[in-house]
Design goal:
The protein has ten helices and eight strands. The chain has about 220 residues and is of the alpha/beta class.
Length: about 220
């Protein structure tokens, strides 16, 4: 059985552990308004998230302009830092999942394309009762997911081969990261992508609620 060999778990943050969409949307729309651009609905921002802050801002603007892009990144960073936990919560079932992984002695880590400082703050605030081997966010464009290097560094920190690690996320970017790293991949349908889109990527499993991961791991 594929998941019988799993001895460590890497978890995505936005759309997997935490519902961050409203706070991200609010920060994006403050920036758009300051730049004289039309606001984006939350349904659109949901599609823009997942490939790092520069790509989020580029998609929200809808056109290429390096000067405006840099300014938008500055504003979104400022606004999100001030309001990143206004409405953000863990998804239902996530505490039970983290408790279950902990009780089984499985090392856990977080790997996100959210800016690294925000990733650390959010995990510390929302998940402070659980221990993570590593918490890694976006530091540079060349290292963002689906680049597998951080995932592989996390496996090394867990003292596990990549084949013994399962990456859990909510996007095809997460799937591509796992494939590039030689890890198994489970995709969550409660996040920022539709089930049909995720299924089309042929992950090792789809789960509709967090504790299904515990069932998969046996």
């Amino acid at each position: 059985m594929l998941f019988a060999s799993v001895r460590g778990v890497i978890l995505d943050l936005d759309g997997t552990l935490a519902d961050t969409l409203r706070d991200i949307t609010d920060a994006v729309n403050v920036a758009l308004r300051e730049l004289g651009l039309p606001a984006q609905p939350m349904s659109a921002v949901r599609r823009f998230v997942g490939d790092g802050l520069p790509m989020l801002c580029r998609r929200a603007m809808g056109f290429e302009d390096d000067q405006k892009l840099n300014r938008m990144i500055e504003i979104v960073t400022r606004e999100y830092r001030a309001h990143e936990l206004d409405h953000t919560t863990l998804y239902p079932g996530i505490p039970e999942l983290l408790d279950g992984l902990t009780s089984r002695g499985l090392p856990m880590a977080v790997l996100s394309n959210k800016p690294h400082a925000s990733t650390e703050r959010m995990v510390r605030h929302l998940c402070g009762k659980w221990r993570f081997v590593a918490v890694e966010g976006y530091r540079s464009e060349d290292m963002r997911k689906p680049d597998p290097r951080l995932a592989l560094e996390i496996a090394t920190a867990m003292r596990l081969p990549a084949s013994a690690v399962c990456l859990v996320g909510d996007s095809l970017t997460d799937l591509a990261t796992a494939r590039a790293a030689g890890m198994s991949c489970v995709l969550a349908t409660w996040g920022f992508r539709d089930r049909d889109e995720l299924a089309a990527g042929s992950p090792d499993a789809l789960i509709d609620r967090p504790t299904e991961l515990l069932e998969l791991l046996g």
